[in-house]
Amino acid sequence: MARVIGGSTIGEGCFLDRDVVIGYPPGDELPLLDSDREAEIAGAAVGDNCTLRAGTLYSRARLGSSVRSGHGWLVREDSTVGNGCLIGTGVTIDNDCRVGDHCSLQTGVYIPTGSRIGDRCFLGPNATLTNDRTPLRTDYRLEGVTLGDDVTVGANATLMPGISVGEGAFIAGGAVVTRDVPVWKMAVGVPARIVDLPENLKKPNRLGK
């Protein structure tokens, strides 16, 4: 049976694997776990008709309706995943992130604190968004990545902190993106250069149909 902690709520028609944890407390609530005050943990919210395999949804996070997952996923506190999304095996969504409706996050995707992802975005296997330009070397201010609607990010692509990717843009597999990508353009290479998007790719992602 899934472990449902504190004030967590589960919608109707959901399947939760026995190794799912809903409402795991972040650091500020952790002392309440396994105590007579566990009911005080805020908990998480899961919408209707979700299918969740083994993974963890932190307290104060929310999944919309009809979300599906693989195994070993993690969604941290104060993050929201929209309706109809796929959270693949090994996906990590850190705290204070927003993922829109009908997104597909494939195996091994990493989304760091402060990121914003629009509707119908596709992130291929091991796509990595980053938010710290100088890890452990200087005082830092985390800068999440922003993706507009209908963005595609290919497998093993890396997006550097603070960049914005416009609606309909396409990030080629393996690209390292160091600057903003305009709407309906393509980023390709290391470091990525911006090129015109082929005409046959100038259409919304076929997600949520």
TrEMBL record:
Keyword Transport: no
InterPro entries: Hexapep (IPR001451), Hexapep_transf_CS (IPR018357), Trans_hexapeptide_repeat (IPR050179), Trimer_LpxA-like_sf (IPR011004)
Gene Ontology MF terms in the entry: transferase activity
Keywords associated with the record: Amino-acid biosynthesis, Diaminopimelate biosynthesis, Lysine biosynthesis, Transferase
TM stretches of this protein: none
Pfam families linked to this entry: Hexapep, Hexapep_2
Keyword Transferase: yes
CDD domains per UniProt: LbH_WxcM_N_like (cd03358)
Superkingdom of origin organism: Archaea
Protein name: N-acetyltransferase
Species name: Marine Group III euryarchaeote
